[in-house]
Amino acid sequence: MDSEILQKCIKAGKIAAQVRRETAARLEKPGASFLESLDFAEGRILKLGGQIAWAQMALNDVAAHFCPEEDDTQVSQEGDLIKVDIGVHIDGYIADNAMAVEVATKEYTDLIKAAQNALKSAIKLVRPGCQLWELGEAQYSEAEALGFTTVKNLSGHTITPYTVHGGVSIPAFNNKDKTELQEGWQVAIEPFVTNGQGMIREKGKATVFMVEAEKGVRSLYAKKILEQVKPQQGLPFTTRWLTRKLGKGSAVLGLRELQQSGIIHAYPPLAEVSGGMVSQFEHSMVVKDKPVVYTRHEEDGW
Ligand code: MN
Ligand code: MN
Fold this sequence. Notes:
Helix content is 33%, strand content 23%. By secondary structure, the protein is of the alpha+beta class. The longest helix has 25 residues, at 3-27. The strands form 5 sheets. The protein has a 5-stranded antiparallel beta sheet. A 3-stranded antiparallel beta sheet has the order 1-3-4. Helix 6 (239-246) packs across helix 7. The protein contains 7 helices and 17 strands. The chain has helices spanning 3-27, 34-47, 109-125, 132-145, 220-229, 239-246, 248-260; strands spanning 51-59, 62-64, 81-90, 93-102, 149-150, 156-158, 169-170, 186-189, 192-194, 200-202, 208-211, 237-238, 264-266, 270-272, 278-280, 283-286, 292-293. It folds into 2 domains: 3-203 and 274-293, Creatine Amidinohydrolase; 208-266, Arc Repressor Mutant, subunit A (Orthogonal Bundle), CATH 1.10.10. Strand 3 and strand 4 (93-102) form a beta hairpin. The chain is globular, with a radius of gyration of 18 Å. One manganese (II) ion (MN) binds at residues 85, 96, 98, 190, 282. The site of one manganese (II) ion has 5 residues, from loops.
């Protein structure tokens, strides 16, 4: 990886880490509006000089892929376990990071600790030639040490320009994958740890989408959506960006057409199958003998 690209990753990472922490700090207090918190996150990314790849959150048994709609009235409540997942890019070079916070409770301190430990112990192994199963094993054993398990059907991933999932999955358990990390790969490691069974499935209405094919569209609504999300260049977009600009009716019709014609793919919330609580921590890094973990904030401690 040349140094100009590395500098872009590092810049995106600094912003992603700061916005992730600021957003989590808001949501950690009871009564914080989900909608305002994610609008805040997006505003901060831009203010700090980044481009928005995504700003998402997830509540309790939901692991990932939730964004509030424009009329969402939910607020954080005592006893909630909230994940904040922030993606920032500079010219397509993405920093992907996430953290979990518990709202006015100490009930999930161990669950949080376990995911932090899982991430830390995997990062310690990162170097060219490290096999993917080793990273999975490290994460799983940290979760198990505190009495939990990792979510098996969620994984970390490589990152390539303007692409969230670069094609190689990094398991959170020993899946026997002997693929070796290569020098210069950008990877995100993201253990999801749960007190449930350790599997997720899609649940509820999607508010996160990505364009996955380029094809002609019929309706004006669909055209307008594609125009609006074009600057994302394939990175995620969310419903409220569209409804605020086009109105709810037009946005819903347009989204339906785009989904039916296979132009966009919907990513519904992912919930733990047994209703277990889920914590998550995530860093992005560049693989080297000493990896460059570019989403770490000096106060993270993980
Ligand atoms: Mn993420
Ligand atoms: Mn990720």
